[in-house]
Amino acid sequence: MIDYPTLKILWWLLVGVLLVGFAVMDGHDMGVGTLLPFVGRGDDERRVVINTVGPHWDGNQVWFITGGGAIFAAWPLVYATAFSGFYWAMLAVLWALFFRPVGFDYRSKIAHPVWRSTWDWGLFVGGAVPPLIFGVAFGNLLQGVPFQFDDFLVPTYTGSFWGLLNPFALLAGVVSSAMITLHGGTYLAHRTEGAIQARAIRAAAGAAAVTVLAFVGAGVWLRLAGMEGFVITSVVDPAALPDPLAKTVVRSADAWWLNYRTQPLLWALPVLGVAGALLAAGLAAVRRTLLAFVASSLSIAGIIGTAGAAMFPFVMPSSSVPSASLTVWDSVSSHLTLGLMFWATLIFMPLIVFYTGWAYRVMRGKVTVAHIRAHTHTAY
């Protein structure tokens, strides 16, 4: 049996892997949805764009569902507190996601330009809104979220929805949105050809530039503005039962840089985020589209990893009562629960990855306007 402290670290890593997996797998079809009204000119071209992700988008949603389920089971206090504080933001994500299944299913049911254009913009909303909101949420986590616990560990959120839309959080939303748009652009460049591919490559280049500028800008903002992070000042027993109120936390302007100072190898993560985005744009420009998609995936891993490494061991800091902040050590489930989940993940995760890889291999190749015109009764 793996000891409790090790399982806490393993589940911090596994949740990170699931978040990156969601951003890579579901992110590229969200990026395609974001680009749909702009890279597709006319109904045939837009059907090409939709058919690049049509067979896979619902399977990719598994990463979103699995990530949410893992947070619920491994970090129940984080799940409860986040859905309390970010309630309206999460509802906005769900409302936007509603456009995806109905958009994919209903768009081609009626051959009328207004009908189809309406669903195209619905797919745009379903692709563009969730990454923006997720980025805003990460920006708020870095600043701390106003919540506290009573003696029974019932969380109370003391902020407002509009308070989440602060300048730094919106900048983080730009990073997330541009990152996902870049990813969708590289995927479209790989699956299409001709004019659609050329537009996708230009869109990817623009998104890469915005990603890098916003990502670096957010780091400079954190540093130069002296934005306060959080530091645990009391002794923590990693093997103790979860109790977020049993520690002392203070705010410090250097807090989010401490891990990078003590572990210089962590600087590889932001470097990967920047270099991966630039490399993806460059590779797409010379038509090395599969490598561009890989580079974009690595950029996503680097950007998400940068935030995770800066905040460790914090998961959800509290700006109103810092000592109530949720960390890797005190927001988790029981030893037994984490252990059972770990072994289940070890068994089923490779199966999911294998099946996903097989599905993409079977449906590989370019989607063209000629193919769409020859198969007018395809589902999309």
What would the principal axes of the Cα set say about the shape? globular
Q: How many strands appear in the DSSP assignment? A: 6
Strand content: 5-15%
Taking pLDDT < 50 over at least 5 consecutive residues as the criterion, the unreliable ranges are none
Radius of gyration: 21 Å
For the largest beta sheet, what order do the strands appear in spatially?
1-2
Number of domains: 1
**SSE string, helix = H, strand = E?**
HHHHHHEEHHEEHHHEEHH
Could you report the average pLDDT, rounded to the nearest whole number? 92
Number of helices: 13
The profile of the biggest β sheet is:
2 strands, antiparallel
Helix content, binned percent: 55-70%
Task: Describe this protein with a few key phrases.
single chain; about 5% strand; globular; 13 helices; two-stranded antiparallel ribbon; about 375 residues; mainly alpha; 6 strands
